[in-house]
Structure formats: C-alpha cells, structure tokens
Design a protein that fits this description.
The protein is an alpha+beta fold and about 675 residues long. The chain contains twelve helices and 32 strands. The radius of gyration is 28 Å and the shape is globular. The structure holds zinc ion.
C-alpha cells in the first residue's frame, strides 16, 4: 500500500523526521561519545535465528543467498465460482483448492486465512478500523479430500493420545485451523472444497478507506475476499500471524481459475486474463480492445455514455466473467454499474507490449487523466531496473481503496500508480514475507520510486543525504529494528517498514556505488522470482554479488538502530603531510570518505593511491571500513598530496552515512561558529 495510507492508519508522524529531535552538538558529552581511546566493539556478522539455521541444515537455503538444493514451496491452485448480489452487497462463493504439499513433511493441519473476519469487529485489529462491521466471512462448508468437516462440532484436540478427527476451529477469526484426520503426506496433494459468503463493507465514513470495499451499491472492489490457505514454509512451518490490517500478506503461489457472476451491464476487472470476451463484451468493445497494443494512445473500450446490458457489456440478465492467472499469490477484482474502461500499453523489454487497463467512475476521470502514461513509465522503468514485468496485463481499479496492490491489479488512480506498480516486483513476483519484513516490500518499493521519479523527470537520481539523515532518528526509543516483525512495530511502523530502507540503500550506494546496488538487486529479483526469500537470503546474495562481506553493514542497519555519527576531530599539517583525525561516536562504522579541496596555486598536486581527483583542486580520498575493526573510535587519515595547501576538508561529502550532526564534518569550522544540526549537511539535507 502507499505510505500516505500507512501514515493515516498508524496516525504516525516520525518525530525525528519532523525535526524536533533534541540536538546536542557537543560530541564530548553525548552518551556513547566516550574518550578517544575507549574501544568500540564492532559486530561483523549477522545473527542467525533458529529458523534460518534449520533451513541451512536442511539445505533449503544456504550462505550463497540462492535457493538451496533442497528448496521447496507449497503451491495452491484455486478454482473459484463467485456471485455478487449488489442489493445485499454480498459475495457468495465456492472454491476448490488443490494444495500441493511439496514439503518433505506430512501436514497434519491446514491453516486458512479468513481476512474478511476483520470486519466482525470482535477480532484483534491494527490501528485502522473499517468503516462498517459485518458478520465477516461466513463459512458454510469445508471438505477435505471429499470428507465434510462438521462445522458445528467442537475442534479436535492437539494433545498426545487424542484421536485424530477432521475438525476446524477459529472460523470467526482471521486465521482458522483445520485438524486433519489423516495428514497430507509429503509430496502429495489434497483437495479442499469451501463454500462461504461475505458482505462487502461500505460505510459513509469509509469512502477513501483502503479496507472499504464498495461505494454504496454501485461499485465493488473485493480484496482478500476468499478463504486462502496460509503460507507453510521451511523457516517456520505454518505462518500463524493473524491479519491485523496494516501489514498485508505472505501467500503461496499458484494458479487461479475464477468465474465471477454479476448483473449484465456491470464491467468486471481483475487479476489474470479474461477468458471469455466473446460472452461478456460487446463486439464494439472487442474491436477497440484489438487496437490497444498498437500504440501508446489511450483507447476507450467502454465510454461514459455506454451503460447497461448490450451497451457496456453483452446483453442478458447476468454474465459470468472468467479469468485465469498462472503463478500468482492472490486474486483481486472490481466491478461497477457504470465503469468507464480505458486502456493503453507498456512495452516490456524482451517481451513486447502488454495492456494497461483502467476502470473508473465517469465522475472521477480527472484522477485517471495521467494514469496511463505514469503506469507505462513505471512498468517499463522497473522492468529495466530489476527484471521484465512477468505478467500479461496490469489493471488500475477505481474505488474507496486507492493505494493497494494485488497481482496484475492495483487499486489506485494516478496518485499512487508508480508505487503500487512497483509492488508487482515485490511481493507479487518476489514473494517476500511482508508481514514480518515489510522493508523487503514497502522499503524496496520506496527506494525504486525515488529512481523512477528521477527518471520520469529525466534527471539523475540523487540519493545523497538520505543515508546521513538517519542519524537524526537513531536513538529514538520507539524505533523497532527492521528485523522486528512489522506487525508489532508500534508507532514507528511506517518508518520501519517504508522510510528506513531507502536510507540504508543510500549508505550502501555510498560504499559500493548506486549502480552496483541496483545491479545486485536485479540479480536478487531474478534469482528469487516466484519464490520466497528470507532477509538472510537477500543479505548473503548481496554480499556475493557485491563481492564483499558486508555483515557489519547489514547487522547495524537491520538488527539495530545505531548510527555512525562521524566528525573531524582535528587537522594537523606538518610539511607536505596533513593528518585528519576522524572520529565516530556511534556504534555503526563506515568507510572514511574525505573531500579535500586545494588552493588554486602552489606545488603540483601529487596523486594518492586511494584518492580520485574530481577536478584540478578537489580530491575524494577513501579508506575502507576495516580501519575501524581494531576497536578505536578515532582514525588518523594521512593526506600527502605533495604540499599544495589544503583549504577545506569535508567528511562524508555525499552525506551517505548516518550522522546526528553533519555540522562537525567540515574543516576548518566556518568563522562565527559552526552551524550544527541537520541544516549543516553538505548535501542540503
Ligand atoms: Zn506499498
């Protein structure tokens, strides 16, 4: 979803980002700023939890960061029939789920996600409360391999000696458990048949709320609307995190075959490819559709004056729209009595043109005026950045939710189109666990949005300043580390999940170069496409791709809330040699990067092995992070450029390393007292 929406949900204003973090420019009196000789313990590897150790032992994952030789994942294939009745605002559905247990373990139980039970009002909910309570997702039938579950019977016990009996518990919660009489053997399949109904919540206060699923009785935007099998993986077995609202999902991949029965005249959009246009569209709409891939023009498929059976759709009383999607991790759709349907194309490298569909209410056309070109740019840019867009189409759906993502579907107008399109890479293509590790989903997305926005302006992206700015936030007690389960992230959920990752990747770019970061992440995208990477897989793969052990970097960014807090403590010149005493008051180390500016005239500037000349009078000199590994908090950086007078020295000139007070990064200190605090950033931060 969008950060704007996340902010509304958590009612969170990041205190430090708002700029009223207490400033204490005096490094000598800050906690952690101990005397120059005191050692600093620097951790150089990342913690391995029991979950990742087990996976390494089992060979499902390993230290290369690529899927291990024994890697497996479940597959769940859905065949769904759903009927929408606008007068009751209710979907009645039945589904057959083919559960492929590709794991080496038998499954004695199956967990179901019943997200619509969040509308019951009596289940735990996050900081966002839907505008209407309903009776939730009412399950009317469950059978497993043809055997019906008695929905009225109490659930079977789990203890030793208790006879196994097919039963279910938790049907009124967002997570239900089916206990199986006979486990699903390893590497076999089971068939679940489920029937249910769910009323789509509306509510007058919820017209712009992402968990509202309709405008009155004329537009429906169903999401998370059918019972889903929860994720079962090699790290933790069943994912039993309950659905609270803000953190979204972690789903199995599989095939969807979905038939949606609505009144004739109602246009249906959704995940997948429409299989029966000859049955549900007019001949006129089909002719217009045939032209969509021919140019970048935005073509009207169904106009605002074409409404009702025989006009907006084929004639009849009710129509069944049939969609199919291969290898997706969810299915979302929308329908309205008077949708305007427009379409254009994006050209995907190595693949060709794919359609971009837009369905919106006629009176909201202005919100979609630029949606086609924005979405085209996003699809084409992110395809080049990471990996080609893998799906056969993308659809923007109008409705109360205007910042949410599903496979091939974004509930978005032009406002969030770039960001929501970004989600097609994560979690729709790279199936990360966003309920635990929101940063691998929303965080990566925020980073790529910066690059996309610059590309759209035809300007080089500027990531300077971002890494440094984290220094103003570090130390806030309400900040959870990024590895902390995002569902439990508290008041700084939005910063942890959305905001911090671009700052981390800005620093990484300051070490290896931004292009290298992006190249490595492109490999990560391709290696883990349609699989489920853990943070450790990402970390180890990045280390391999960047050809250095960045354990220290990942440890401080992902497991702690520490910063670098660098400063220039002293500068002394003796003959041709200048010694710069660099100090790091924080726990996170960084390479030492100095910008050295020389007088216009004097002895020739002699090259230094670790220096790059930017121009005749400016050099960038770099020492690797290793200089800190002996535990000292100070480093004497020796400059010997042959005696040309040095006029200015700036530490971390690209502002990539977290620093509470960039004002002490410059020598000599400006006359009249050094400016301190964020405003003193060399990058205008
Ligand atoms: Zn998002």
């Amino acid at each position: 979803m969008t950060r704007r929406v996340a902010l509304l949900i958590t009612l969170f204003v990041p205190v430090a980002m708002a700029g009223f973090q207490a400033q204490n420019p005096d490094a000598q009196t800050r906690p952690g700023a101990t005397s120059a000789g005191a050692p600093r313990a620097i951790r150089r590897d990342v913690p391995l939890t029991n979950a990742i150790r087990r996976a390494h032992d089992a060979g499902t994952r390993d230290m290369t960061g690529r899927p291990g030789k024994n890697y497996w994942q479940l597959q769940t294939d859905y065949a769904i029939n759903a009927r929408l009745d606008p007068p009751t605002q209710t979907i009645t559905g039945n589904e057959t789920i083919t559960l492929h247990n590709n794991s080496p373990q038998p499954l004695a139980e199956v967990f179901l996600r019943l997200d619509h039970n969040i509308y019951r009002g009596l289940v735990p909910r996050g900081g966002s409360v839907p505008a209407e309570n309903t009776e939730g997702m009412v399950i009317t039938k469950i059978s497993v391999n043809g055997e019906a579950v008695d929905l009225a019977a109490p659930a079977g016990g789990r203890g030793a000696g208790v006879a196994r009996r097919l039963s279910v518990s938790g049907l009124d919660q967002t997570l239900a458990r089916i206990a199986l009489a006979a486990p699903v053997p390893a590497r076999s399949t089971a068939k679940l048949e489920i029937a249910w109904r769910t009323k789509l919540p509306g509510g007058t206060n919820g017209r712009g709320h992402r968990m509202t699923q309709r405008f009155d009785e004329m537009l429906f935007q169903p999401t998370q609307w059918f019972p889903r099998v929860a994720k079962y993986d090699d790290l933790r077995g069943w994912d039993t995190n309950i659905y609270l609202g803000p953190a979204e999902f972690y789903n199995n991949f599989g095939r969807f075959d979905v038939r949606i029965d609505v009144p004739a005249g109602w246009i249906v959009s959704g995940t997948g490819v429409l299989q029966n246009p000859q049955e549900v569209l007019t001949a006129r709409a089909r002719e217009r559709m045939a032209k969509v891939l021919e140019s970048d023009a935005v073509i009207t498929i169904v106009g605002p004056d074409e409404v009702g059976p025989g006009q907006s759709t084929a004639a009849g009383d009710r129509l069944v729209w049939h969609f199919m999607a291969e290898m997706v991790n969810d299915f979302a759709w929308a329908t309205a009595k008077n949708f305007v349907w427009r379409a254009t194309r994006a050209t995907i490298p190595g693949k060709g043109a794919v359609p971009i569909h837009m369905v919106h209410l006629p009176e909201r056309a202005n919100l979609f005026a630029n949606a086609g070109p924005i979405t085209r740019h996003a699809l084409e840019f992110y395809s080049k950045l990471w990996a080609p867009y893998p799906f056969p189409q993308l659809t923007l759906q109008d409705g109360p939710s205007a910042g949410m993502e599903y496979p091939m579907v974004i509930n978005s107008n032009q406002g969030a189109a770039d960001h929501e399109t970004g989600h097609q890479w994560w979690p729709m293509m790279v199936g990360n666990n966003e309920t635990w590790y929101g940063w691998m989903d929303e965080g990566f997305n925020e980073y790529m949005n910066i690059l996309s926005e610059a590309d759209e302006r035809k300007a080089p992206p500027n990531l300077d300043g971002l890494g440094q700015s984290y220094g103003r936030i570090s130390g806030d007690e309400s900040e959870p580390p990024m590895m902390w389960n995002a569902n439990n992230a508290g008041s700084m959920y939005s910063f942890q999940t959305y905001g911090k990752t671009p700052l981390m990747l800005s620093m990484l770019g300051g070490i290896v170069g931004d292009a290298e970061v992006q190249r490595a992440m492109s490999t990560y995208t391709k290696v883990w496409a349609f699989k489920h990477p853990s943070p450790w897989d990402y970390i180890f793969l990045m280390n391999q791709e960047l050809k250095q052990d960045l354990g220290w970097f990942w440890y401080y960014w992902l497991w702690t809330t520490e910063s670098v807090d660098g400063s220039i403590a002293n500068v002394a010149t003796s003959g041709a040699r200048t010694t710069v005493t660099v100090r790091q008051a924080g726990q996170m180390p960084s390479p030492v990067v100095l910008k050295v500016q020389f007088a216009a005239t004097g002895p020739a500037v002699k090259p230094m092995a670790n220096a790059k000349m930017v121009n005749d009078t400016t050099a960038i000199v770099t020492w690797p992070v290793d200089v800190w590994f002996n535990g000292s908090r100070t480093f004497e950086a020796a400059l010997d450029f042959g005696g040309r007078a040095i006029t200015t020295i700036t530490l971390d000139p690209s502002c990539r390393f977290p620093d509470r007070d960039p004002g002490d990064n410059v020598w000599p200190k400006p006359a009249g007292g050094a400016p301190t605090g964020p405003r003193a950033s060399a990058c205008g931060g």
